[in-house]
Amino acid sequence: MQIGLLQRREFITLLSGATAAWPRLARAQQPERVRRIGALSGAGETDPLFRAATTVFVERLQQLGWTEGRNIQIDYRWGGGDPDRIRRHASELVALVPDVILVTGTAAVGPMIKATRTVPIVFVIVPDPVGAGYVDNLARPGGNVTGFTNFEYGLSAKWLQLLKEIAPKITRVAVLRDAELAAGTGQFGAIQAMAPSLGIEVVPINVREPADMERDVAAFARSPNGGLIVTQSALALAHRPLIIALAARHKLPAMYSNQLWVSGGGLSCYAANFADEFRRGAGYIDRILRGEKPADLPVQAPTKYELVINLKTAKALGLDVPATLLARADEVIE
User: Fold this and answer.
1) N or C: which end of the chain has fewer CB within 10 A?
2) What are the φ/ψ torsions at residue 238 (nearest 5 degrees)?
3) Ordered mean pLDDT values, 10 residues apiece, the chain (334 residues)
4) What is the rounded distance in angstroms from the CA atom of residue 135 to the CA atom of residue 120?
5) CA 233 to chain centre
């Protein structure tokens, strides 16, 4: 009888311990919670620059512990430079109730903010977010929005300076801009302010339908010593092959707003590292998913700008790029 009593007590003790462990085991076996990330770009889905940058974004998230199919789901939407499509996609993403949204480009940020004042938003490739009203200030953005600027409008003046160095004979520059964007007029304003000191006349050309741009660029090119600056916009990117072809056809030395233009045959660009913006954006997405608030994350500027020159295009234009400028270039395409 004594032995049986002890055995029963040991059994009850073991059973109690196992029962207490069951909740812990059940929790350990539960799948990890899947967080939802929205991603809205003003550019087109087939754009190689943005596709490559998206890959960098996903790879950085994975390094930070977030893997698609395991603990995150990313819902992508692409605007292709179409304002109506961008607005529609912004509403669609909000309806999916994401934990955070990555927004690329000025054309997409405004519609996204109008679509939600509560879902955290991280933007990339956006100039002057304070002037555009996206954040209260850079150090303390306030609200549900923060992110990374790719330049201040003052950088646009640098585009004109560098273009003059590359092609010293230019006296006239056509500036392709999206007049519907505050960034478009802001970039043009900075270029216009610098022009008199360089002895250059600037002429605005709106990025519109292909036939309109062909007509306007051809009319500008009828006079000699012309150059071209293409300011940043999703609409310009959507027409990138045409714009590069127009610059080549009319022998216009050109400065562009990111590296893809130059790798695609354009003459030159001076810009922040595109992929780095997305890498840093992934860092903010990670911090927000782990509990930080966009209002407490400062808007950050690029850490470096890169000058890229396409020597093959320069030779086709009959330009002898100064050796001093080539020595300063971060990349020379031959």
Assistant:
1) N
2) -65, -25
3) 47 48 47 91 84 93 97 96 94 98 94 97 92 91 94 88 96 94 86 96 94 96 97 88 97 93 94 91 98 96 92 96 94 93
4) 12
5) 10
**pTM confidence score:** 0.79
For the chain, the maximum distance between any two Cα atoms, rounded to a whole number of angstroms, is 114
**Residue 234: predicted pLDDT:** 83
CA distance 55 to 73: 14
Per-residue confidence (pLDDT) for residue 285, from 0 to 100: 98
| Cα–Cα dist 95/86, whole Å | 14
**Six-digit token string for 46:** 């087939």
DSSP state letter for 296: G
Residue ranges of domains in the chain, CATH in brackets: 35-151+273-303 (3.40.50.2300), 154-272+306-333 (3.40.50.2300)
Tell me if 38 sits within 8 A of 93, measured CB to CB: yes
What would the two tokens of residue 150 be?
A: 């790719």
For 147-160, b where at least 16 C-beta lie within 10 A, e where not — what string? Answer: bbbbbebebbbbbb
